[in-house]
Amino acid sequence: MGILLPESLIPVYLKATGANRPFVTEDGARRRIAERFLRPVSYGPPSRLEGVRVKRRLPDPNGWPVYDVEPSAPAGHRALPKSVGVYVHGGGWVNEIAPQHWTLIARIARETNQRVIVPIYPLLPFGTAREVCDGVVELIRVELDSDHQVRLAGDSSGGQISLSAALRLRDEGVTLPTTTLLAPALDLTWENPQIDVVQPSDPWLGRPGGRILAEHWSGDDELVDPVVSPLYGDLGGLGPLTILTGTRDVLNPDAHVLKDNARAAGVPVEWHEGEGQLHVYALLPTKAGEQGAKAIVESLRPST
């Protein structure tokens, strides 16, 4: 466990670094999309990640960079189980994978003794919801064809992609053993009236920029298409869901809707709600973040 910070410092940091700028205003969202043309951001893993080996696949499936993260076990250690994880990072469809993501991914690989596959999917303005969902589904199909079980996870916008992919696979007759969603974006119409109740306490995300990003991400599809907004999909037949959400996150109201709809459809749901916690709190270096990260790891651990 690294150094944990007081939770009160996180909102100050978010505002000081401008992390909330793409979300709190429409102009901020448009500027961030434009910046993707001018200022490419590195997506590679940190030079050192504790207890894992990282290998980039060549050639890249779908033309994307894809990484395999495996635990670096000593010789003679038991073989990896026939189970792999796929982790789809968040970032509002416009921000690249961050060091915090890599740290959690390495922890998942190390503590569950699984290979974790990390797709670096195209962001706005280069990617769309359907294109990326198709790519993630194809990546999972390759593993299924190799007789692997696949446990899927994603945070924020990556949660939207993950649930949309799980729904597509369900339609094809594949039920994943686990889909874990951290602060998922679920309804890109942003119409839930409870968002207005949560918004004053959320220092990170906001409806104005969120709507602009959603409009671009939807591409040629309607916002209510489940490939864009998985909350509009039929949830029946999905495998178990694990949902983590903080009460100071404007995406929290839709997470409640997902929980209720999934349970009504007979889908097992493990629910973790962080009282007073921010968006993607399990990625943050706080006491609550550590508890959330543990819950994610446990949800992705293969059954024995």
Automatic annotation (TrEMBL):
Pfam families recorded: Abhydrolase_3
Domain of life, per lineage: Bacteria
A GO molecular-function descriptor: hydrolase activity
Keywords assigned by UniProt, alphabetized: Hydrolase
InterPro entries registered for this protein in UniProt: AB_hydrolase_3, AB_hydrolase_fold, GDXG_lipolytic_enzyme
Domain Alpha/beta hydrolase fold-3 positions: 86-282
Protein name as it appears in the record: Esterase
Organism: Brevibacterium aurantiacum
